[in-house]
Amino acid sequence: MCPHRRDRVFRPSRRGGRRFLLAVPFALIAAVTVVDLLVPPEVHLGPFLIAAPAVTASFAGARMTAFVGAVAVLAQTVVSLARTSVTDLNHAYQIVALVLISVIATLFAHLRERDESRMARLRSIAHAAQSVVLPPLPERAGPLRIASVYLAAEEEAQMGGDLYAAARTGSGTRLIIGDARGKGLDAISEASLVLGAFRVTARREPGLPELVAQLEAGVGPAERHGAARPGADGVPDGADEAFVTALVLDIPDREPVLRLVNCGHPPPLLLSGGRVIPLEGAGACPPLGLADVLAADVTVETFPFGEGDVLLLHTDGVTEARDASRAFYPLTERLTAWADAGDDPRSLLDRLRADLQAYAGGHLGDDAALVAVRRAGGTETERR
């Protein structure tokens, strides 16, 4: 099973749906024509034929819309000949109006078709960019089993400012999960900078402080921050700084521990022995891109991470999801209630994703990323 997923919305078969929809305008034309021939002469149902090309334009292309319009005009002509003649003033006006509506509907169908084609090309480009910027995490890395999920807030978006990556070193695995400030292309750009710096330096730097220093240099040099001063919440007041909250982890293969640097990011959750433990250290470092402003040292925290334990990394799009009453998603409580949730990273994320989307009514207020990591037992690792 693929370790890396994007949320996808189920859509019915387009071919079957289009066939059903195409039957509607033709059925409408047939029904109006037959009834119009049967009712008394003073009753005119011809204007209802206008609905046929108008409805067709909403789902079909320009050619099909024009064809339906032509069939509707032909049907109105048959009714005119059967009742009086085509030159009858009332029927003539109906035919002219039907022709004009059909032409307008065909034009709108052409414009919609052109826009859909443009959007399809943009989605194709987005898929290609996504595969480069945010490729799938490995399903296995040494003794670790890994799964990930990315949930985009925008329905058509493929990725936003959330990020994650993994890299193998000579002694273990390094991971990063982060969230770039803001939305749109600026956030994607910052996320790309962090991911690029991580991939280049994660295997090369000897320790997490050096790695974080390289990531900091890649996100935002001091010149970008100006002379803004830290506010009460630790973030400079009135500044337009680009920064990224992140967790940077080093998980040794042969030690039952993990080492963590928290750069202003929500703490990870450790699922161990039926308990959910937030890994909160003595103090978080500033977000990447603000170290020069806040002048803080890099703090490396060490936590137990033994066989069978599961580590859940997440962005604030998860905990800030709201239900209909505007209450935040209770992530820790949900995990605690699932006694068997920590057995497998993939199962955990599948269950969490479904529960999160149901809680938020299918619409998240922000992008959300989830990464689950399990340290396999000795026998399981040997089967790799």
Give the secondary structure arrangement, pairings included.
Blueprint lengths: L3 E3 L7 H25 L12 H6 L5 H22 L5 H45 L6 E2 L2 E8 L10 E7 L3 E9 L3 H18 L6 H12 L24 E9 L4 E7 L5 E4 L2 E4 L12 H4 L6 E4 L5 E5 L1 H4 L11 H7 L7 H15 L8 E8 L2 H5 L2
Parallel strand pairs: 1-3
Antiparallel strand pairs: 2-3, 3-12, 4-5, 5-6, 6-7, 7-10, 8-9, 8-11, 11-12
Helix pairs in contact: 1-3, 3-4, 5-6
Structure explained in plain terms:
The chain has 384 residues and is an alpha+beta fold. Helices cover 42% and strands 18% of the residues. The chain is built from eleven helices and twelve strands. Strands 1, 2, 3, 8, 9, 11 and 12 form a seven-stranded mixed β-sheet that branches. Strands 4-5-6-7-10 form a five-stranded antiparallel β-sheet, covered by helices on one side. The longest helix is centred in the N-terminal third of the chain and has 45 residues, at 89-133. The protein starts with a strand and ends with a helix. The model is unreliable at 1-13 and 222-239 (pLDDT under 50).
